[in-house]
Design brief:
Layout (H helix, E strand, L loop, with lengths): L1 H42 L6 E16 L4 E6 L6 E2 L4 E5 L2 H64 L5 H62 L1 E3 L4 E6 L6 E2 L4 E18 H4 L7 E6 L2 E13 L13 H4 L3 E7 L2 H6 L9 E7 L17
Antiparallel strand pairs: 1-8, 1-12, 2-4, 2-7, 3-6, 4-5, 6-8, 8-11, 9-10, 9-12, 10-11
Helix pairs in contact: 2-3
Length: 369
């Protein structure tokens, strides 16, 4: 009986020692956490005129999309790849566009021939008009002779020197001459109308040339736009489509991050945001590189609070309002370090609420240049 009792006692002592050991570990962890919290609280104390807020590095997203519907032929860049402005990123299948362009070029040739033909028609109609005018002159000359002949016949007939038959024949010729003149003048009018029609045909043919040229230019623009190029220096964030897919007009192919416009967005309460001016100096410290101090400037302060309590009735509640602030990193600094720029990195933004505010010792280091 002594051995079982002794074994139970030793087990109880071991359990008590184990429990005491776990209590000591928990106490040590709590103490370390308290020290760490105290250190963070102490480091968070900032001089008067300096405010801070946490945020992330952000940039402008650019969608690379198709202008016209078609099949995606190839993508020349991969995700995460850095690209330069004007670099070819992808291309669309342009077989249909090239066929349409050849058709338009054929229509242009036909329109050019149509202009030449219409101009030849104008020349021909003008010649016909001149001939009709000449006929009118001829008919008038003949009529003048007919009138003179009839006058002489009428005088001789009154003296009974010539017969009545001759007088009647000369009268008929005079009347026939009048009709011939009217017919010739009608031919002149018809020839003039034909000239106007031929000139209109020239204008139509020339318009067909301009239309064909415009079609060729439009198709060439579509062909050029089928080669998708980067509008800015940036980094490919992700692919949206894959080669071989048929995309609608405006279909997205790639998404870029514009590395020429990088900023950090953070939030400040009413009392601090109200004192902030556009252009105020900001210093950014990223969690990934706390030893680096990145200079920036305030480029935007929201005019509407991003967070509003359900009912703003007291001064205390109004102080809870938070305003969005954007700190812009200088473009020349971005161009210099563009290969190292990454978005999404968290960090802290420290901003001067007044120009003469003194930066804390931790932010007086050498700025990234």
């Amino acid at each position: 009986m002594a051995k079982p009792f002794q074994s139970s006692l030793e087990s109880a002592r071991a359990f008590a020692k184990g429990k005491e050991r776990w209590l000591l570990v928990a106490l040590a962890v709590a103490l370390a956490g308290g020290v760490l919290a105290w250190q963070r609280l102490a480091s968070s104390a900032l001089p008067a005129g300096i405010a801070s807020g946490n945020g992330r590095i952000e940039a402008v997203d650019i969608d690379i999309a198709t202008k016209t519907a078609g099949r995606l032929k190839e993508i020349l860049v991969g995700e995460g790849e850095f690209v330069r402005a004007g670099q070819v990123l992808a291309s669309m299948d342009i077989l249909v566009l090239e066929a349409q362009k050849r058709e338009a070029e054929a229509q242009l040739k036909r329109a050019v021939i149509g202009v030449e033909s219409a101009k030849a028609q104008v020349v021909q109609r003008k010649a016909e008009h001149q001939a009709a005018v000449a006929v009118v002159a001829q008919r008038k000359a003949e009529q003048a002779a007919n009138v003179s002949r009839f006058a002489r016949s009428d005088e001789l007939a009154s003296k009974q020197i010539t017969s009545q038959q001759v007088l009647d024949d000369n009268r008929a010729k005079m009347e026939s001459g009048k009709a011939a003149i009217l017919a010739a003048e009608a031919q002149v009018a018809a020839a003039q109308a034909a000239i106007s029609a031929a000139e209109s045909a020239v204008i139509n043919a020339e318009a067909a040339i301009e239309a064909a040229k415009a079609t060729i230019e439009r198709l060439q623009a579509d062909i050029d736009d089928s080669t998708l190029k980067s509008p800015r220096d940036g980094r490919v964030q992700y692919r949206v489509a894959q080669p071989g897919e048929v995309l609608a007009a405006g279909g997205r192919v790639l998404n870029l991050v514009d590395l020429g416009e990088v900023h950090m967005t953070f939030f400040l309460p009413t009392a601090q945001a109200g004192r902030l001016a556009i252009g105020s100096e900001v210093r950014l410290v990223l969690d990934a590189a706390p030893q680096l101090i990145i200079p920036a400037r305030v480029s935007f302060v929201a005019d509407v609070a991003q967070f509003t309590p359900k009912s703003v009735e007291t001064t205390e509640e109004r102080l809870k309002l938070m305003f969005r602030v954007k700190a812009q990193i200088p473009p020349e600094l971005l161009r210099k370090h563009i290969q190292q720029v990454k978005t999404g990195l968290p960090g802290m933004a420290y901003v001067q609420l007044q120009p003469d505010a003194t930066w804390p010792t931790s932010l007086k280091g050498t700025l990234v240049q």
